[in-house]
Amino acid sequence: MNAQLPPASFKPARLKPDRLKPWQALALIASLSLIWGYNWVMMKTAVTYSPPFAFAAIRFLGGAIVLMLTFKLMGRSLHFRALLPRWRVVVLIGALQTALCFGLVTWALSTGTAGRSAVLNYTMPLWVLVFSVLLLKERVPGAQWWAAGLALIGIVLISVDGGKSGSLPAVMLALGAGLTWGLGVVVTKRATRDGAMDNLALTAWQMLAGAIMLCIVALLVPEAPINWTPAFITALLYNIGPATPLAYVIWFTLLNRLDAGLASLGILLTPLLGLLLSTLQLGERPGLVEGVGMGLILVAIAGLGWVSSRQARERSQANRLS
Description:
This protein is mainly α. It is built from 14 helices and no strands. It has helices at residues 22-49, 52-73, 80-83, 87-111, 114-121, 124-136, 142-165, 168-193, 199-220, 230-240, 242-257, 260-263, 265-282, 288-321. The radius of gyration is 19 Å and the shape is globular.
């Protein structure tokens, strides 16, 4: 797991691309947020006609293949030989960030609401904070702990409301998805300390590994057959198309040509849009307690993102001065 990547297997570093113009950055962030935010409506629609694991398996198998083809058409290497010595890490990340995260959240969507699932899934920054302290021994600013405490209060409120309404299992599944996603992020951070990995290639291969795991689960777990309605096919194509290759191309473009803090706006806005769009299209109406809990979590996510972006800017300035 800790084997170093062969340096010669990677292409020489390219010159940093020009920064995006403000209107370009705004357009890309808005597009990414809308694509991923609306996908919560699409996923909820899909599990209305399909069992959760079958949908997740088809979605990510198709998405991984289309993503790889997209990267090849863009002239990007998938670095198969470079990542092969670290296949255990790639499989572990795929298990956490694709198989477990999206297996759990798709299961949650099959019995719970899209908006709540989106908000709880995006508690990921909270779990990244916790696991970074426990596993990486990182020190974090006090402001992040305050934000984490706010998120915890929100989680408790949603859980209490879920216990009263009978939706606690769906709450726990969506929360578990955010936890495994956060753990996957920390595992990735740890892996990059042991040797650089190309982010695009890692994303494609871990997604394929996770998709294979989901296919195995879908075959082993007894589920009802898929009802191939036009609505399901549309939702599936949306997931295999815009929500995967297009969204990831936009995401990596933002990361490469924009400050990390600004790029992360696409992540921060997604659960909010998921909540709003599911309310508008699906008619979901959270109760008072659940709504307050969701609001606290969204504020906490924004706070964690703001502190992280400030730290990234300070590190960038320090590197330029050194």
